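Internal tracking record. Fields below are filled automatically when a chain is submitted to the structure queue. Please do not edit lines marked as system-generated. If the sequence contains nonstandard residues, flag them in the REMARKS field before resubmitting.
Queue: standard
Priority: normal
Entity type: single polypeptide chain
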Amino acid sequence: MSLLPTSVASDSSIAKNKRTRVIAVLMAAVGLFAIFVFAIGSPANTHSQLTFTPLNLTNAPWHVGTLTVATRWTDLVLGLLMMVLAAEVFFREPRRGVMARFGFVAVLFLLALLFWAARAPGPSPIGYVNVTSFLVGASATTMVLVFGSLSGVMCERAGVVNIAIEGQFIGGAFLGSMIASTTHNFFYAAVAGAVIGGLIGLVLAFFALRYRSDQIIVGIVLVTMLSSLSSYLNLQVFTPFPNFNTGNLAPDLPIPLLSKIPLIGPVFFNQSGFFYLMIVLVGVVSFALFKTRYGLHVRAVGEHPRAAATVGIDVIRVRYINVVLGGAIAGIGGAAFMATQGQFQVGYTSGYGYIALAALIFGRWRPSGAVVASIIFGLSVYLSYELVTYQVPISLYFLEMFPYLITIAVVAGLIGRVRPPAADGQPYMRD
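SYSTEM-GENERATED OUTPUT FOLLOWS
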């Protein structure tokens, strides 16, 4: 039996149905754009080629030949599939899986865009899409976003907003590069990233919990401070002593046989240790939050801290632990990003911490949802860089804005509003 008054429950149901239909309309608009711009806008004689050749031929997967498709018809089918999904959401108004459908439509749109950009004859000198190379490159961006969104899940489930993820990325990348360059060991670099990220989380927790400072302001201050500090140290340390930033790449650790599977093998089973650690952390965080007594305490603190305190849960202690652990995960993400780029560079995190927060919101504060959202954001971020090489008749600056426009749409609730933990961002005072 519902405890809400009938009128309140009815209004809530109407609002939910309205949001679902708004999402369906957006999906339909994306599908129509793909049909009229990408499909009908492509000459009938154009085609796109899909290749599956990895750039690194060491431990290469089993060979798969080139697939050639008609650009117009392929994009037409993709656009129609988007329209079918939009119609299903609009008329059925499913209670679950709406955001998953929206994410799938977003991926289909990115594929249609890629086919259209690589069409031949066309404006691009590149008449093919190397699917394996594209997915491997996007997986590096996705990995960093997953680390960041997991950090956000840990913090916000306990009721603390961690805007400082970007700063933790910077700290992890800077210290990780220094440690990896001097020890030539990425395990130590990951540990260093976790330490610096945890320390930044401790500072955030200290001001947010001890002095009940505004968590958003503290997080922004930490990001600004670390951004400026990394620029200063880059000039004072890395420039005169380049041996501390030598440009190391984390080695791939192929899994026998599985790494030989075409397309899937290079993406999931021939990655660095950071990628495998990310997968493990997703499982550990999911299990810890929803299958353990500890997770029950965390979620209770994030939803109703006073009620949690009445049953003997130390609210402040739980929040301290989660914010520090969340900071450590983000710090490892910074070290992982450095390991995919080769060396530390000022400003190269490019706002990934804020995109990770948008992925957290998109994923409804759940690790599994955050992973799905990170995949979508990772593909869009990497695609914005790739489209430059295809000479798409759109300004480079507009292409680079694309992932941040999606971020604004998510945070503003344009694709459906979601409810954060009830006590998220609210200071707690002991009685």
